[in-house]
Amino acid sequence: MAKRTLLDRLAVQPAAVHRVRGELGAERAADDYDEELEGVTLDLVLLGMGPDGHVASLYPHAPGLAERERRAIPAEAKLEPLVDRVTMTIPVLEAAPLVLFLVAGAERAEAVRRAFAEPPSEATPASLVRSKSGETVVILDPPAAQELEI
Length: 150
What we know:
Layout: H1 2-5, H2 26-36, E1 44-47, E2 72-75, E3 85-88, H3 90-95, E4 98-103, H4 109-117, E5 135-140, H5 142-145
Parallel strand pairs: 1-4, 4-5
Antiparallel strand pairs: 2-3
């Protein structure tokens, strides 16, 4: 989906795209992706956020939130579609000089408030992802922003 809706439309293609080979199954795909990401720092991390505050496939209170050694791990799906998942870990996400959140919809408003207006918490994984070396940008539509005081 990202290739079709975003990458294929770019006038200048990125120097590298790191695709998760999900067809291998979550365990093997995570091992392969972890290896592929060795020594890689992403220039941009583009994230959405689920209504429960999850980001990537890092769900509230999931064991993967504490992972600091691996770059990619298998993740159990908590929301539809319930398919094998691989996710980058927080250290990989926060190493990017630009972390960009795009969030839309009133069903995410409470999670937006928890993620961007309250202290970080494993209950809201999106609150744990901030660029360590650059900037974190959040773009919200009005319904997603409705619980923020701005």
